[in-house]
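Render this sequence as a predicted structure.
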Amino acid sequence: MRRVVERLKRTESPLLRDVLLRTRGYAHWARRGHVVRSRAVSRYLASATEPKLQIGTGPLSLDGWLNSDLISADVYLDLTRPLPLPDASFAYVFGEHLIEHLSERDVERLLGELRRILRPGGVLRLTTPDLQKLLALYEDRNPVIDREAYTRFLDEETGKRHETPAQTLNDQLRLWGHRFIYDEEDLTRKLERAGFRDVIRREPGESEHEALRGVERHGSEEWINRAEAMCVEATRP
């Protein structure tokens, strides 16, 4: 499992990443999909006052949440297909460093599905690389970390050598199977088109909703999300 995940993290090809994920996902579907998933979802929804769904969980499960993923977690969930979950059933949905791995078209469909499964007043929180922050790293004006230090970090993270800012930026955009990197304006428009309202940007770990505080755990250090990512919350009317 660990070898597969590490290979997925380093691949520059979205197609290869998808093939590897789905190959690994067949085994997870056999264990946690279909009937098993249906029963697990029903048990969870019956037991939770404020049901919370994490999508794209990977190895970072959250206590008290229904954790879902293509290759691991409590239940199997393929986010490129209609979600086999009841309408208006969840109070919160959270996904971290997920949507950038899907095609723009798949994300637009997914947002509609997430709106459907949220209760009225339910909140979706997405954390994803921020194009503006990545451009700030390229231009050496990121307030969290300077470009030289970030380049050393990226060298260690990828096993590659980045000798120019252009190499660093291109790998930020294309490594790990990234397909589309959002800025706040673009993601906000997509959320609003999907029927969400009150789209608000939050800092990593911060929220007015207790259930959504401190949920980000991407990367080996706390500063990584602050340097690279944005957190956006949106409400189903």
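Summary. The longest strand covers residues 118-129. The radius of gyration is 18 Å.
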